[in-house]
Amino acid sequence: MPKLDESLLTGLPPFSLLDRAQIREILDQAVSRRYDEGTAIFREGHDADRFHLLLDGYLRVIRSTPGGDQIIVLHISPGQLFGIAPALQRDTYPATAIAAAESIALSWPVRVWDDFIARYPGFATESYKTLGQRLGQIQETLTEMATQAVEKRVACALLRMVHQSGRKSDKGIEIAFPVTRQNISDMTGTTLHTVSRLLSAWQKDGIVESTRKRIVVTNPHALVVLSEA
């Protein structure tokens, strides 16, 4: 494997306070791997033997309910740590991470976690900040599923993906990774039929444009209004 360049980590929050020599030390302990779309990086309940940093692509984080359903609780963007079970004082992964698009990630053995926390300024602060933000996002999603009408839940889910990965296109703002109607169903705790009905109605009203795995928000303001209804 070619030697990883220090520029990969320079400026990323967990490593932004480090000099090039420190980043070199970290990279020399890392393993780089590419994941095809749909590949599981790790699964809920499995031994947490490594922690990771997403360099490119997007991930879906999936939790199982007591009834056995699968819920997509959040997405992870490039430049973020994930699989950081040691920050939760866990020795198993609390969720499943699936590549939502072709992705590249670095990983390190969990035995170096405490050393990173002790030796590298800013690593601990940013890691626990990320953890707090993720827990907040998951709580927000679960609260929406328990309290909000279906139309509002679906609108909120689309807006979260737009805010996280949206890119301008000639038709509006496109979600940057593949999204199916089943994915949205799994994010919002509703049926595939209901999601299909809503997206078809919104497409007719000029709010979104939905194809097999791509969604473009053509009228963002109207979607915001639906999310706040």
UniProtKB/TrEMBL annotation:
GO terms for cellular component: cytosol. CDD domains: CAP_ED. The keyword Transcription applies. GO terms for molecular function: DNA binding; DNA-binding transcription factor activity. Residues 14-102 form the Cyclic nucleotide-binding domain. It comes from Donghicola tyrosinivorans. This is CRP-like cAMP-binding protein. PANTHER family: CRP FAMILY TRANSCRIPTIONAL REGULATORY PROTEIN, LISTERIOLYSIN REGULATORY PROTEIN. It comes from the Bacteria. Coiled coil: none annotated. Keywords: DNA-binding, Transcription, Transcription regulation. Residues 148-221 form the HTH crp-type domain. The keyword Zinc does not apply.
